[in-house]
Amino acid sequence: MNTFTLKIIALTSMIIDHIGSVFSMHINFRIIGRLAFPLYVYLLAEGFFYTKNKLKFLGRLLVFAVVSEPFYDMAFSNAASLTQVNFFANTNIFYTFFLGGLAITMWEEVRAYFERGVLFDMILAVLAVVPMAYFANVLGTDYSAYGVVFVFIMYFVRVVRAGDFLQELKEPAQKLWPVVMVALCAHQFFDRVIVNAIRHGIGSLPASEWGFQVAVIVPAVLVLFYNGKRGPSFKWAFYIAYPAHIAALVGISVLLGN
Q1: Predicted model pTM
Q2: Half-sphere exposure at residue 196, Cβ-oriented, CA atoms within 13 angstroms
């Protein structure tokens, strides 16, 4: 399974999720949609690891964050026109990816100028991530601070797997990184299912909620079959697909009088 295949799965899942959200379709649409975010985060971490120009990568994310926001607001924030679009509240997933990528870039750029040590790298990671996570909360980005942390940790794990952090951790990281991804994916499961079950009783949870949360583990299984190869690129197509499909859903919704 190459990068192109994972992107197609993520894109298909996201579109199904958004159809379910915009048109209030069956909960199964939203359950299928849980595959998208973890896959995109994994692919974003891979992209940042291999890119030769992180600033250019960040620029693309920021441009598409701004371009996508009007359609996102009209689809998910009840904005009736462009005048009601808010670029600084309830923002789209590209904002999350941009802030996560900015934390990655800050971490990499600063550590490049100093003699690297484990403690220094860990402290620097916290200093890079915390402000970006805070801004994600302020901007109300999709997946908020959790999304920024997820992006950074997946990149950090990728660096460790390559032996660029601690060479002695390279081999264990190759074996244990799927556990890290499962743990990150399962965050919402423990937060929404386990905590609610403790507070209100397990019988208070609808069956759909279990499916909704368990589905987020599937991406961790899918990436186990990733072979590290790119496959067909179509890079810009996947960027454009985000605002394009949301714009199409908004147009269809207007035509249907929703």
Answers
A1: 0.90
A2: 14
Residue 145 near residue 133, CB atoms below 8 Å: yes
Q: What is the DSSP letter of 52?
A: S
d(CA 55, CA 57): 5
Asked if 68 and 249 touch (Cβ cutoff 8 Å), the reply is no
Who's near 195: CB < 8 A, 6+ residues apart? none
Cβ neighbours for 76, distance < 8 A, ≥ 6 positions apart? 21, 22, 90
Concatenating the DSSP letter of every residue in 159-187 gives HHHTTSS-GGGHHHHHHHHHHHHHHHHTH
Q: Where are the beta strands (DSSP E) in the chain?
A: none
**Rounded to whole angstroms, how far apart are CA atoms 165 and 148?**
20
Tokens at residue 25, please?
A: 């379709």
Token look-up 């789209």 returns: 92
Task: For 199-252, write each residue's pLDDT tens digit.
Answer: 666 555 566 666 666 777 788 888 888 888 888 878 899 999 999 999 999 999
Distance of CA 49 to the CA centre of its chain: 16
Judge whether 232 and 2 are in contact, CB under 8 Å.
Answer: no
Segment 173-189 shows an average pLDDT of 69
Three-state SS at 258: coil
The three-point CA angle 114-120-125 to 5° equals 105
Q: What is the dihedral of CA 184, 187, 188, 192, to 10 degrees?
A: 170
CA distances from 25 to 9, 131, 250 (A): 20, 37, 15
